[in-house]
Amino acid sequence: MNIIDFLRVLRANRLVILGCAALGLVAGVVYSLLQPTLYTATSTGFVTVQGEATISGTETAQTRAQSYIPLINSRTVREKIAEGGLDTAGAHLRAAVVPGSNLITVSAESEDPEQAAALANSALVATAETANGLDPTSNVQVTAMEDALAPTSPTSPDYVRNMLYGLGAGLLLGLVIAFLRRILDVNVRTTTDAQVASGAGLLGAIPQDATLKAERDAPRGEPSPRAAEAVRQLRTNLRFAAVDDPPRTIAFTSANPGEGKSTVIGSLAVAVAASGQPVILIDADLRRPRQALQFGVDGRVGLSEVLNGDVALQDVLVPVGDHGLLLLPAGRTPPNPSEQLGSARMRDLLTALAETHMVLVDAPPVLPVTDSTLLSTAVDGTVLVVRHGKARKEHVEVARDMLAGVNARVLGVVLNGTPASGVGSDYYGGGYASKGDDYHAYYQAPRDAESRSAGETTPEAGAGR
């Protein structure tokens, strides 16, 4: 993973990371509120070597001062403090030597500032007495120099420190979650995932758009400018997928149902027809046909009847749209869809249609049934449609292997339903991150201007006549 991938993961999971950071801040505040309020008082003592004012005497005092630090929590010192009427049961005492000097400081913490000062002073005196009593003949002495004063503000809890610790822990947790989601995610979420799982190049990334939403109980609507441009890009890439041997019959399939292959191929067929190329769309999903309803035509008679020899092909081809697109509906569901799609009659039908038209075949999904693998041997190429965030990588890999098992020619993969805008759109979808208003201004505004101009010139022309 390079720095670009790292930043993309951060952007894609920024809500998780920010949420964990906020949770860490709250945890820091709650932890601080649960802690007792403590005051710290500090007294200072001076370690001297009597009769010596040389450098060696100062070094000796510093060395002795370090050796006296453990005495602060000794039983002897605590007993001396208790003799003065102070309770040391819950007292927190500590001693330290000021760096580069022979000063020793004694600190005490308590919930009462007055008691903290009294404990610090008593602890210093008790430590000095204990240290001086260890070797009465020694010329090293500890002398109380500065008494502790009652503190005016608490030293604990430290809200700022605890909040920073909580923030850091929350950010770390957010990063761990973000990268675990990326590493352990089994669904296809990037164009790279789609290409690696399918073993094919990327033909297009269709954005998630309400106008391309596949509803099984409603006809297709007019695609938005953004969606239409993505489909046109797919059309262009498909034409250059095999320059030396351009395919005339192309099947669109997916690993599992519900990945949007019927919507994608229906929109592509309209775009190809709009470019002026003769095209026939065949609904070969005989088990769950979609194209007749998508285009709002009667699909009770179609491909099944043609393959059975019940009707002539010309009698069931339905022109749809404004650009000469021909649709061959699926017809009724036969008892043997796999045998029909893998039959020699189906091959002959595709060959005959490909002489005059580009043929797009809406094939069933690969994993549930064998229809697509049989059909893939009869077409010039197959396109695998993968649904962003829904298709599992292992399912796409199995579909790839099943197609490879029959020597199917996979032209490429289409990542469908990618985020059209917002965080991670360029990472997850391949670049359709602009807002719909931007697409409208770029593609639709010139047409609107032409319409307005035509409307303005018409009255003038009438007046002239």
From TrEMBL:
Limits of the Polysaccharide chain length determinant N-terminal domain: 2-82
Cellular location(s): Cell membrane
Entry annotated with the keyword Phosphoprotein: no
Membrane topology: Multi-pass membrane protein
Entry's Gene Ontology cellular component terms: plasma membrane
Organism domain of life: Bacteria
A molecular-function term among this protein's GO annotations: ATP binding
Keyword Membrane recorded: yes
Region: Disordered, residue numbers: 443-465
InterPro entries, sorted: Bact_polysacc_biosynth/exp, LPS_length_determ_N, P-loop_NTPase, Wzc-like_C, YlxH/NBP35
UniProt keyword list: ATP-binding, Cell membrane, Membrane, Nucleotide-binding, Transmembrane, Transmembrane helix
Residues passing through the membrane, by range: 12-34, 163-180
Family designation: Belongs to the CpsC/CapA family.
PANTHER family: CAPSULAR EXOPOLYSACCHARIDE FAMILY, TYROSINE-PROTEIN KINASE
Protein name from the UniProt record: Capsular exopolysaccharide synthesis family protein
